[in-house]
TrEMBL record:
The keyword Transcription applies. Gene3D superfamilies: 3.40.50.2300. PANTHER family: RESPONSE REGULATORY DOMAIN-CONTAINING PROTEIN, STRESS RESPONSE REGULATOR PROTEIN 1. Keywords: Phosphoprotein, Transcription, Transcription regulation. The lineage of its organism: Bacteria, Pseudomonadati, Pseudomonadota, Alphaproteobacteria, Hyphomicrobiales. One of its GO terms (biological process) is phosphorelay signal transduction system. This is Response regulator. Residues 10-129 form the Response regulatory domain. It comes from the Bacteria. It comes from Alsobacter sp. KACC 23698.
Length: 166
């Protein structure tokens, strides 16, 4: 049996800012993820999904053309020939209560507030793939990453953040 590794993951990253796309791509490459496809808009994300089967989607909530909510409504529609049901991490500058509720309705497991560190990104990915051992990626990480209640949508810290910015 092969040992799980970040190198086996396929990531679709949706972000309008070229700078942030390069930054996040660098974070993902740093942990060994080699298969990263970028999209600048929600429409581009839909085009990429027609040809690319990601393991995980990292998507800006406020994506132009189609928002993350609209993209998720389309790809998770059970009446579609090919429903796409993969883990999603949403990024945003303002995680309001409304955003958290809308994301939860669309089965988004994590909302990542911008700006975020590589470690924060790795923790979110590690939540979906708990068998990945990333101790050698960063000296601040000891062994396998464990999901933290504060990074889950129903975690108290996420709700407190949203309550303060409704």
């Amino acid at each position: 049996m092969s040992v799980p590794s970040f190198g086996n993951l396929r990531i679709l990253h949706v972000e309008e800012s070229p700078f942030v796309r390069r930054l996040v791509r660098g974070m993902l490459l740093q942990v060994g993820i080699r298969d990263v496809i970028d999209a600048a808009t929600g429409y581009e994300a839909l085009e990429r999904l027609a040809e690319f089967r990601p393991s995980l989607i990292v998507m800006q909530w406020e994506a132009p053309e189609f928002s993350a909510a609209q993209v998720l409504d389309i790809i998770r529609d059970p009446s579609r020939v090919r429903e796409i049901n993969v883990p999603v991490v949403v990024t945003t500058q303002r995680p309001t209560r409304r955003l958290l509720d809308e994301a939860a309705e669309r089965d988004v497991q994590h909302v990542l507030r911008k700006p975020f560190s590589p470690k924060m990104m790795w923790e979110r990915i590690g939540h979906f793939y708990p068998d990945l051992n990333v101790a050698d990626l960063d000296p601040r990480i000891d062994g396998k990453l464990k999901p933290k209640e504060s990074m889950l949508l129903d975690g108290p810290a996420a709700r407190e953040t949203a309550a303060g910015s409704s």
